[in-house]
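debug: dumping io for the single-chain case to check the tokenizer round-trip. Nothing else runs in this session.
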Amino acid sequence: MQWSPQSPPGPRLPEAYAATLSPLAIEIAESGETCTFSMRDGRVVLTPGVEHAGTRVSLAQASFDGLTRDLESTAGLIYGRRVQAKSGDLMEFMQWEPALRWLYTGRPVYDPGAIELCDRRGEPLDPTRSFRLDDDREEMAHFLRTTGFLFVRDVLSPEELARLGAEAEALHREAREGDQESWWGKREDGSSVLCRVLRAGKLPTMRSLHGDARIERLASLCEVPMTLPIGAEEKDGVTLLWKQPGVLEGLGDLPWHRDCGLGGHASMCPTAVVSVFLGPNTPEAGELRFLPGSWQMSFPHQNADSPLAPRGVAPQARAGDVTIHYGDVLHVAPPPTGSAGPYRSCILLGYARAGGGHHEGGRHYNDVLLGDTSGQIADMRKVAARS
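debug: decoded output
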């Protein structure tokens, strides 16, 4: 078993992140061979066997190989029940993911003190800036390439928004728990709430956004050619989400994450997601925030309210505005702070680079989330505790 990377990574890990890593032992299920990963002076030290490791996990050889090649992710392995905790906490395994990516692929870990964002003239870039569709394409492409996201105002007309709003209400009425085409959450009183519909493209105005010339113009700003890999009427072709207050279970609220967080980075990225806003992007409405400059880096799993979590940038979007972001840019969707709506709702269209796809030929990495026939998607920590 070859545990060490073929090419040692470059600079040390950021000190603040390295300080969060406790020794982790990984066991290969087929052979029983074990190696302990620990930190010393900002670098990862590999020691055969189990040495002072509070957390010990077991996974198949193929899963470990996929992890070292950036085809698998710790979250995907946990949700897929393909890794078990022999001792300790699987959330420690997740905390190690940025270090493992750095060790085996050389991908740096996000360090806020080392980020410099500059515009095309070399001047400091304002990550809160907004654009319009007819603004300079090179300026927009540079902003997207630098920050990992782009905010564009007034893309859709009031008439279009009215039609989309009516279709959103119809989709909300038709969704049923366990239909395998929707995500649900639960409030404290046990009531279920709809968080996402995965086949919004079955209705005509929603479907018309798939390939819309204005949205295609934004997708063409990406560094590589992008396509819509899933048909408009298929599951995940056009997705509709609603922020809901008081969701305690499910994926109504999301921690800092990347869109390839369930696996497949090396086989499909870069990807991009266009968000069409049907409601405001404010703290009261449950805002979407991005971490500027993070899209070519890694970042540990953190909830938005964690004391160590960054703030990020929240575009001041209104209904009719659009954002596009690279799937790798770190973003977060905390719960609404307001007790009365309107809450944020968005239509999502996912783009992929030409030739990219599932490394095992599967339909979508997120399908691992739909295993529960009730339609409820379990919280990561609960899944980790059961594995």
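debug: round-trip ok. The first strand starts at residue 24 and ends at 28.
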